[in-house]
Amino acid sequence: MQPRDLSDHVAYEAGRGIEEVARDLGLEADELVKLSSNENAFGPSPKAVAAIEAYAPTVHSYPKSSAVDLRDALADRWDVGSGQVWLANGGDGALDYLARAMLRPGEEVLVPAPGFAYYAMSARYHHGSVNEYPIRKADGFTQSAGTVLEHYDGERVIYLTTPHNPTGSELSPAGIEAVAEGTDKETLVIVDEAYGEFSDTPSVVPLVEERDDVAVIRTFSKAYGLAGIRLGYAVVPETWAEAYARVNTPFAASEIACRAGLAALEDRDHVEKTVDAVRWGREYIHGNLACQTWESAGNFVLCEVGDGSEVTERAQREGVIVRDTTSFGLPECVRITCGTREETKRAVAVLNELL
């Protein structure tokens, strides 16, 4: 017996873990600076840590009340109905729920190239096919509604990322609305705002209240520092919000994840500290790294270094882990996550020596 034909599927390539790199290089983990996975340099929200510790003895119970409480809290945060909040196992879990709800076998989706590989992966898991629209280096990785619509051919789902990974560019709320206006009424526009807390551009969640063809993805992995517990969500139109009960994995957001998320939402100091550090880090990298960089609204900066794989490997030997972007189709670049001031300065110094 064999699995179904998976020849069109491509495995997701995550940034290398600090323990993995340390083992390969014969170093201690604390000798390395990991700036490859867009994680929070300050760790998880302290209030979330306290909640995890407090609720650890209750993990024998399914997260019924905590999930309801978190959906209510997020609904209040975004001024939507609680039924419009689809909790999931990370933002990628929310992408899966939307694919389950919207995609029929053989239908097509439109994804950015370069872009987050899981958009295409999720579509293919659900028996969809994938088309691409470009975000071009020659254009400074600018995003525009015109480019998306130029490549649109009636796809069932369009994925927009703002801020965009790995380039950091944004598509304005007006541009997102233009995409929705310019596509068929049966085309869903999914807006991935995983890095939204680091941007000064307003979220397009309010657009979900005006239209039934836009959904927004958010996550607790970045600004809240909860990547390890896998908690994300979608905000969807009220008209089809009830589909959640038919497509979600039972209790996909765990008791610990929900309790941590509730606490993290109240930890505004942690988020502000994180966002302030990212703003400083972006400016420091732009101003001090001796190579081409691109303006970013995320918690990372894309940098042109020549041979990204070689530079990444050499930087690791110097104790700094950055992301080789070959898997994004940008082999000449690396992506640097903004760390603490000390970490960011060390990364820039090491890369400048290599360059």
UniProtKB/TrEMBL annotation:
Keywords tagged on the record: Amino-acid biosynthesis, Aminotransferase, Histidine biosynthesis, Pyridoxal phosphate, Transferase
Source taxon at top rank: Archaea
Modified residues (N6-(pyridoxal phosphate)lysine): 222
Entry cofactors: pyridoxal 5'-phosphate
Occurrences of domain Aminotransferase class I/classII large (ranges): 31-350
A biological-process GO annotation: L-histidine biosynthetic process
Uppermost EC category: transferase
Chemical reaction(s) catalysed: L-histidinol phosphate + 2-oxoglutarate = 3-(imidazol-4-yl)-2-oxopropyl phosphate + L-glutamate
Protein name, entry field: Histidinol-phosphate aminotransferase
Source organism of this protein record: Natronomonas aquatica
Encoding gene, per UniProt annotation: hisC
